[in-house]
Amino acid sequence: MKRLVNRTKEVVPRAPERWIMFTLGLLAFALYARTMPPTVLDGDSGEFQYMAYILGVPHSSGYPLYILIAKLFTFLPMGDIAFRVNLFSVVATALAIPIVYVLARRAIPRRVPAILATCSFAVMPSIWGGALETKVYGLHLLLGALALFLSVRWHQERRARDLSAAAFVFGLGLTNHLIIAFCAPALALIVWFNRARLTRALIARCVLLILAPLLLYAYIPLRANYWIAQQDPQNWALYPREDAMLKGTVTAYYNNTPQGFFDLVTGLGNSYKFGFTSPTEESNRVNAALQLLWQQFGVGLALVIVGAGAALWRDRKLFAVIAAFALGVGFIAVYLRAAISTIYYFSLCYLALVVWFGVGVDALMHGAARVGIVTRHRLAEQSPNRGLEIAPSRKSLLAMTFQILIALGALALPASSLVSNFARLDESQHYAARDYAQAVLNDNLAPNAVVIAPWEVSQPMRYFQFVENQRADLLIVNASPIWPQFERMMTRARELNRPFYNVEFYPEYRVNTGARFVQAVPLPLRAEPRPRYALRDARIVPETDVLGFDLEPDPPQPGESMRVLVYYRARARMFPMYSALLSVRAATGALIGDYEGFPGSYFFPTYRWQSGDYYRSAWTFDLPADAPAGVYTLDLYWYVYDLDTRKSDYTREFARALGEIRVGDFGVARIEHAQTARVGDAISFLGWNGAREIARGQTLPLDLIWRAERALDESYTVFAHLVDANGRVVADADSLPFSGLFPTTRWQVGEVLRDRHLLKLPNDLAPGDYAVEIGMYLPATGARLPVNGAADKIVLTRVSVR
Fold first, then answer.
1. Distance, CA of 281 to CA of 587 (rounded, Å)
2. Please, what are the domains in the chain?
C-alpha cells in the first residue's frame, strides 16, 4: 500500500492529464452553456447583473472580486449585459471541473475513477444549478477547489510556491464569499502536518498573500461614496436616506460609516441568520442537509463511505484534510439560515466527498483485479491440466472485465443525474424575470413615480433602468408593504403629490399550475381615469362608484393573456374590508372563469381609501385556447372580507354588471370564393371559404362572410344545408352566428364578419355531388329572410362526396 500512496504523490499534469482536464472542462462548459439563462434574472442574480455593469455595491459582503471580474465580462461582444454576466458563472464553474479532476488524482492512482468522480461532481444538481445562478457560487467553487488542490500538492510535493499560491487564492476567496473561511481548518491542518518545513520567511509571505487581496474591499467605500455623492434632493425629501441606497446603486444594507462597512464585509449585518431558533429548526436543517446530500449522490453515497474507509487506510493525513474540509463547510452551511442559498453553500463539502467517491470506485477496481487473480488460480486448479497456468491474456481479461463492470456501474450515476435533472435545471428559456420587469415598466407609470417592488421584481427592473436606460425617471425601491418605511414613503409621496405604486403578483404566492402575473398598483391614481367602457351611476357599495373598465388587448384573443382594469371612485370612507371577484361568462351563460382579488390592493384595503380618490383593480388571466370568438359578459362582485379568518364572507355579496366585451377575431384575411347577395334588407353576404370535395363521415367547415349594413333589431339563425339532387337535406348546421356567442343584434354596421359552421356528413352518405345551401331565418317563426328580394336561400356550390 505504501507503493500505491507514493504513486498518487507522483501525479503531475503531463500531456495526457492536460488533455483529460481540457476535455472535462470543455464538456462541463458545453453543458452549462446549453442550459444557462439567456437574459436578466430576478433577485440576487438580477442585482449582480446590473451591479457589475455600473460598478455598484451589492448586498453583504459586497463581493468586490466577483463584481470586478464580472465587469470584465460585460465587455464581451455577445448577447446583452445580463447574458455576459450569466456567462461568467458558467465559465467559473466549468474552470473548477478540471481542478476537481487533478485534486482527485492526488488521492487516486487510476485515471478512470478520477474521471468518473469528476463527471459525477459536474452534474450534481447543486453544482450544475450553481453554474446557472448568476451569483458568486461558481467563483467560490473555483477558488475553494484551487486552494485545496494547491495545498494538497504542497503537502505531497513540498514546493513552497504551492503554499504561497494557496494562500493568495484563499485570500482572493475571502473577497468573494466568506464561507471559504470555513475551509481554513483543513488548510491549517495541512500546514500543521508539514510544520517542520515551514520557515519564518514562508509564513510571513503566506500571511501577506492572504491579507493583500483583502485590499479589494476598499472598492466598497470608494464606489459607495461615488454613488452617494449623486444625491437627488427629491428623494431626500421623500425619505431621508442616501438615495443611492433607495435606488439600488448601493445596497440598502450598507451604512456609510466604519461600523457599517465592517458589518457589511463581515456579514455581521446578517447575524440574525446565524444559529437555530429552536431544536425543531435545528432538526429540520439537519434533515434538509441529509436530503440534499442524497439528491447529489443517491446510491453513490455507498461509494463515498467505501472511499472514506479506503482513504483512511491509504493516507491518514490526506484523509484528515479532506474530512476537515467537508466538515468545516458542512457546519456553516447547516448553521447559517439562508433558505435557497443553502443548496449552493454545500458545494465545497460535496467537492471533498466526491474525492472519496472516486477513491471508493478505485478501491473496488483494485479489489476487482485481485478477484480476477483469485479466480484465475481457482480455474487453474479445476483444469484437467492441473499444473498449467492460465494464459496472461486471459488473466488480464478477467480482471479487466470486473473493472469495466464497476466503471460502468459508477458511470450510471452521473449519466442518470444528467438525464433526470436536465429538464428541471434547464434555464435556456427562462424569460420570466424579464417579462415581469417589462410588464411593470410598460404599464404607463406616471412620470417621476415611486415604485415599491419585491426583490424578485425590483432587481430586473433596476437592470433595465441602469443598463438599458429604461424609465430612468422612476425611483424603484425594494421594500415590503409590511415594513414601516413603506408606510412612511407612501404618506410622504402623497404630501409631495408624487405618484406611488406598489408592485404585486397575481396570484400573490406561487402555485404549481397556472400563470403568475405582475402589476403596478397605483395608491391612489393621480388623475381621474377615462375608461373606454365607461359606466354611469354604477355604485357597487354605497361608498364606492365603479367608473368603468378597460381591456388589454382589446379585443382579447383566445389562448392569450387578457387584462381587465376596473376603476373606482371613493365617495366616502368605508370601514369593512372588501375582497373582489371578476366573473367572465360567454353570451350563452357558460362560465369562462371566476378570478378573485381585492379592490385596489390587499396591502391598501378599502377601509383606507380616501374620499374623492380614484383607485384601480387589475385582473390578468389566460383565456382558454378553445374559447370561441364571440361576446362575453363581465360581472364584478365585492364581498366583506374577514381579516381574522382571512376569508371572504360570500353571504354578504355586492354585485355590479360591467357589460359585454368581444373576444377573438371576427374578421377574415381573404375571401376564397366571392359571392354577393343581399339577405333581408340589412345584411350583405360577401362570399365563403371552404372545400368543394370531402369524404363521407367527415366534417365540412364553412366560413360564411357577412356584413351588417345597418343595426339589426332581430336575432337571426343561420342555416347551412347539404342537399341531394331531390332537394332532400342530408346534413345541416343551423345555429345562431358564432355558435350563439355573437348574435346579429350585436353586429356593428360595416364590419365584415367570418361565421363558421360545421357540416357533419353521415357515414353512410352515398358518393356523388351535393349542393350547399345557406340563409337566415327568424327562430321564433321559422320564416326565412329573402335573398335579393326573391329567393329564400343562397346556393353556394356543389360539393363532391367520395
1. 54
2. 2-223+274-361 (no CATH), 235-246+432-523 (no CATH), 524-664 (2.70.50.60), 673-801 (2.60.40.2550)
